[in-house]
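Re-run requested by the PI after the first attempt was lost when the workstation crashed. Everything re-entered from the original request form. Ligand of interest: MTE.
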Amino acid sequence: MDKMATRRDVLKQGLVAAGLGIAGVPAWVLPALAQGEVEVPFTDIPENTRWDIPPERRLLDIRTIDGVLTPSDKFATTQHYNHPQLDPAAFRLEVTGLVDRPQSLALDDLKKLGATDLVAAFECSGNRGPLHGLCGSGRWTGVPLARLLSAVGLKTPVREVVFYGADHGEEEVDFRTQKLMLDVRFGRSLPRDVALSAEPLLAWALNGDPLSRHQGSPLRLIVPGWYGVANVKWLTQIHAQEEPFMGKYQSRWYRTIRQTTLNGETTYMETAVTRMQLNSFVARVTKLGNRCTVRGVVLNDGTPIKQVEVRVDDGPWGTATLDSRTTDRFGWKLFSYVWNNPAPGPHTVVSRATDATGRVQPTSEDNAGKRTFLEENSQAPRKVVVS
Ligand SMILES: Nc1nc2c(c(=O)[nH]1)N[C@H]1C(S)=C(S)[C@@H](COP(=O)(O)O)O[C@H]1N2
Ligand SMILES: [Mo]
């Protein structure tokens, strides 16, 4: 058992949770409390958490989540290389490879193809508890990728469409006994059918504002329902090809190794990180009188959610209510659960989501065969202290 936090710690964390601007904590305003309502502090979020590590990284404080859209300046951000600063006026998107009409497009050329709005949430495949901060949900504006691809004409043999960012870095690339030092770009591919499906968007705006430099200005790919890595930022080239794309961030860094048994033998399955696994987590707990409200988030691949349940300590699972404001297929879903008569002291609160196909969010025991840390969607017990 974890040592119970001291009363003073708890009090301090309560203040932190209330956004009262203790050093090291961003003065992000938490959603308003009803009169007499108080934060129930999380004791598993360290007080010295660095939410903002400029310029590379920003985590979302999940306790601030209260709607469909994450404000653009709170949206989590991360990437592997530098942050190119591209001049939108000089920007070009090159469309190359096995296409009937190769193109070099200015941003305005893309905008002339028409603009669509789409709400999509994503998490980085490395997102994990207890912070769960590498995620966000936004309204993206852009042109459907399928519209551009039909305008350029994918040739029949094309099986993959590769997306390259302008960011790059020196990499040691292994080939058998050779080690090559190469300056390579960030690249990811989609299978032909996914690239031609209705949802992927070439986006230039988030929540109505042009993308910020960190968000991939001026243009990024958004693949609704996929983990964050698919959403190539600073997109400058789209290349259609027959061969599988083998870049580092496709075939080496973004994969999951699961241990299984086949005819009594231990064996491993190695798969690429693609669509988001069914995930949910508790994001905030408040108390009013003798009842607590547990709120949280569901992220998945866009399959309808059948139910979310919440459990306190070793009690029974109870059904949570899905927020009627968060119904966009690819946006995150928020839920709430009323926990009556909480006893003062430490508790754990956990959620589990079930989708319409009957998939249930796994426990960490169910996920024990997963030998690598990406795609961590295990039910995540949250530690709280009720005062
Ligand atoms: N060009 C480029 N695009 C990228 C990356 C990158 O390193 N370079 N990182 C990916 C990863 S791993 C994630 S989780 C998301 C993060 O997007 P965000 O910064 O808007 O949250 O961008 C993706 N797109
Ligand atoms: Mo990521």
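Saved to the shared folder this time. The pocket of molybdenum atom (ligand 2) is lined by residues 78, 124-126, 228-229 (CB under 6 Å).
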